[in-house]
Model the fold of this input.
Amino acid sequence: MEYPKVSPTKRPLWSWILLYVLIGSLIYAGFTYTSSKQNPSTTPTNTESSTPAENINIVVNNDGFDPRIVEIKPGQSITWSNQSDATISIASDPHPTHTDYPPLNLGAIKTGESKSLAFPTIGDFKYHNHLSPSQRGTVTVQ
Ligand SMILES: [Cu+2]
Done:
């Protein structure tokens, strides 16, 4: 009985090495692929869902509301800070009846003071400074 052509030690040696290298590189490629695929997809979704600020600030200066138009999501609230020289009075449109959205009738805010209001429902809410009705603003909840 003779099996001389294929030596049992030499042939498996290089083929095993080749096999190990192939398997090793496949596993390595698989790890880097899955880890690079998972990391970017998990991080942005987490930050995106937690980024919306709960409170938006509107500054009232001598020229009016800044910003004049704001867009928020339902449940967010707005704080008006009076940094003008005079007392202001925030009121819902239309002037002077203020009937469109009565919760917006916040009343007087003295210089240096502020008032906040939460907007739970979707819609366009227009308001003005009742003591200087040319100063107008809009809150869009969407
Ligand atoms: Cu008014």
Q: What stands out?
A: The first strand starts at residue 55 and ends at 61. The chain has two domains: 7-51, 55-141.
